[in-house]
Amino acid sequence: MKTAVLVFPGSNCDHDAYHALKHVVGVDAEFVWHKQGTLDGFDAVVIPGGFTYGDYLRSGAMAKLSPVMGAVRRFAEGGGPVIGICNGFQILLEAGLLPGAMIVNDSLRFVCDYVHLRAGTDRTPFTRGIPEGTILKIPVAHYQGNYYADEQTLSFLEERGQVVFRYCDPEGNVTRESNPNGSARNIAGICSEAGNVLGMMPHPERCSEEAMGSADGRRLFDALVAWLGERTA
Amino acid sequence: MNEKTVTPELAREHGLSPAEYGTVLGILGRTPSLTELGIFSVMWSEHCSYKSSRIHLKKFPTKGPRVLQGPGENAGIVDIGDGLAVVFKMESHNHPSFIEPYQGAATGVGGILRDVFTMGARPIASLNSLRFGRPEHPRTRYLVSGVVSGIAGYGNCIGVPTVGGEVSFDECYDGNILVNAFTLGVVRHERIWLGTAAGVGNPVIYVGSKTGRDGIHGATMASGEFDEKSEEKRPTVQVGDPFTEKLLLEACLELMRTDAIVGIQDMGAAGLTSSSFEMASRGGSGFLMDLDRVPQREEGMTPYELMLSESQERMLIVAKKGREDEVREIFEKWDLDVSVIGEVTGDGIGRVRWRGKTVAEIPIAALTDKAPVYDRPAERPEGQDALQRLDSAGLPAPSDLGETWVRLMCGPELADKKWVFRQYDHMIRTNTLILPGSDAAVLRVKGTRKGIALSVDCNSRYCYLDPFVGGMIAVCEGARNVACSGAEPIGLSDCLNFGNPEKPEVMWQFRSAIEGMAKACEALGVPVVSGNVSFYNETMGKGIHPTPAVAMVGLLEEASKRRVQWFSTDGDLILLAGADRLGVHLGGSLYLKEIHGKVAGTPPPVDLAHEKRLQEFLREAASVDLIASAHDLAEGGFACALAESCISGPGSAMGARVLNPFPDTTRPDFAMFSECQGAVLLSCAPAKRDALLELARRFRITMKELGVVVGEHVDIEGLARVGAAELRTAWSEGFAAALGLEK
User: Fold this and answer.
1) Which positions of chain B have pLDDT values less than 50?
2) How do the domains of chain A map onto residue ranges?
3) Domain A2-232 belongs to what topology?
4) B463 contacts B509 by C-beta, under 8 angstroms
5) Which of A201, B278, B570, B737 has the fewest CB neighbours in a 10 Å radius?
6) How far does A83 lie from chain B, in Å, by closest CA?
7) How much is the ipTM here?
8) Is residue B39 within 8 Å of B305, Cβ to Cβ?
9) Distances from the Cα of B695 to the Cαs of B614, B620, B688, in angstroms?
10) What is the pLDDT of residue B1?
């Protein structure tokens, strides 16, 4: 079982994702440079957070052109599990692997803080065993995390069970006050129609150990390991 | 193209005094070229040469068993055991941040990051010390927003967490804000690199961004006062590109894992000039550099401009001969420019060529050894005695102590700084064990059990009233904050922000503050390993309060023994360690300033022997798990420290019921808000009480049992009582409200 952590120029949560996978969860992980055109031999892909190409154009708009993204597309089409975190989510949106777009936070400021998430579906490889309604405490850190899609797309996502996480208060209520960035319908994470591609703004890799203030993020990586184990069994 | 001819007038315009220009003529034995004049001017600027401060900086203790590198390099290095070391430095970016707050602050962060990773260390945390004018000053809100977003913009993008710092306001900074940035990195001993040029024939390699016309004479700007035309200096501020710096960071660390290089230095103030001359000076060598090979962003740049540009995100490397291709390959992988621009020579001369001509030829030893050093006259200001007079008894007592308490807690000094910290990524790299908001931030060092505690402090009112005592207090507070978290202070970096050193009163403040700091450093056994001096913080002849900011670095052998400043458990006991340090000390207090509108008197007294024992006691109490929290009494005195311990934690607000620790005073306001040095508020589980008191006896620390964590009010019996939850709400909104910022 081997996971790929993609590294683009400007990725900066790559080490954190690697640490969570390799040293906390204990699954094999390897950095993959963005110029690599293949993901052969990998069982899952993590697109970590950061500021690829400085986010000087739209976030993710440059990274989607890297050779490795063609490989990610093929990997996803084959049903392989892919998680894009923060800037990784933005790249998945720009690459068209997930619907919608990110705009600047409604506060017009960067926000780094712990938030609460309400799980919406356990059908992704990263949320197996995390039933709908589960409340997770996971931090966000972004400037462009205000998820936008037209009404039709939003309804479509909801109908198909593609809304994986929403921002909520500590009791699980999805409220305006608990939304840190103005995202449509408090959306914090969505998955592809098939469920194997997950994009989320919060950072599970930052809270995989109790010493970090929460270990809820680890549940996503544990779920992945269990899912991969079942698949190979 | 013909260069302008150098005249004594032109030299004066470059900031060189007639005597300094005379020395230049003596060194060269001829009239300098324009490029040479530029080189002398920046190398001998206050900013680069420390000509007014050097004789005083020698008073700092800079050695110790853990010190691997003291002042004089890009940053200081202190051993933390297990073959690891921490590399750190603090630096000012005051002048550019006042002119252009976003870029000024951003490039301040970029510069200090380069100082750290140029030594081979991966930066793991940044801090900053920020000072602005009055909250109601028309420019303050703009400056706060710009500086905070500039720090965030750079630090967040490069992916180094900003884990703490201080934000303070005073009228004296209306025309001169302070932006001091600190970064700490971790390195294995065998991977430490220094900024040295050695080995005749070794190639000199330029890497990073291309050189443009930005920031020419930034160092000279930082070496003069501001006037009403400061806005015109905007073009001397550089523009930051954190994305390129991230690439540069990764490429440099990758290169340093090889042994292809001899030395490396960033191009900071005075760019190509200071990096090349300083490296050659340290290596006792010379160099030959060809400016036509410097990657350039603009056409038609003159040698003068190329040598003085402060374009960001550039480094100068001396590699081993024959290893050029390895260097090239790594930097090309990261899409960065790389160019061999010269070589190391053995004749001790720095030679710069451009379009086939020699445009500068300067003996390096003379440039550095004959750099001016001044013992400037120092004189205690005439008004100092008057300033130190304070008739405490004559102050009117407030009618509602509870309201006064809330007012102080919600004012911009003490209010929650979350509005600021939320904009900084303070969690990236997953090492931050104690997030911003406690006395010190604590980070783990992955692969070990160790923790690093960081704090930055300075009470500039104390320094204004008595720079010697204020200097001692800055060091003591930093060390105490680190000790409250359970760590041992192992070194510090400072940013000495002062007015015009040509004024004897300013020089007196500077000398006194350094002597006070040095005394405290000696007593506590903390070396000064790096730092920076920022003079000329004056606008229209009016200087700032002396502000020697101290960034303290502490080590916890066991990160799991860290402590926070806030109460966590109902029923825990509340005790005051160092209770005999309390007294009626209103001089320089926040209460005196905010409630009575005065900055006067003398700072609270310091007892260095007690301070040392207190800090040892705190570390011991943390390491054997006798205390749950520790918070030092600082601005706002006992009542505000108590309130902070109740409301500053990440959970909901806690209540407390305590005795008034000043039973004999007739002035309850003095009891609540007097400030002192050497007292710490503790909480502990009831079962630990006896052992804690015993430990205190062993360290000869006077303890007073005050009460218990309980209920929904912060209650000082017989004096004042406020609702904990209401106070927390008001405190968390106070900062934005005071500045008129959006929540």
Assistant:
1) 1
2) 2-232
3) Rossmann fold (3.40.50)
4) yes
5) B570
6) 18
7) 0.96
8) no
9) 11, 8, 11
10) 47
